[in-house]
Design a protein that fits this description.
97 residues; mainly alpha; 3 helices; elongated
Amino acid sequence: MGLEIAEQEALNARLSAAEAVEQARISLLQTRAVRGDASSASLIEDLERLQRSLGMLQGRIDHGDFLEAREAGIRIRQEAIRLEGKANSHPVTPRTR
């Protein structure tokens, strides 16, 4: 029974982390932080790192490391929320034609 609960918690953490990463990605797009200026490069790198972390989290779940996966999911979610905040405070780059 405890293993089933741990697995469900890991799956819930993965879902929550994935949603937070997606929201951070949307925020980056909405603020046009992905337009290539130097200050947005680190935001993009952070997003890519979080996306890779989601893959590693899934690997932990696949290997039955549910408690580690749950903790990783919590960390990824927290980092994604911080990234979203940075993206939302990032100055909007004017569009050029």
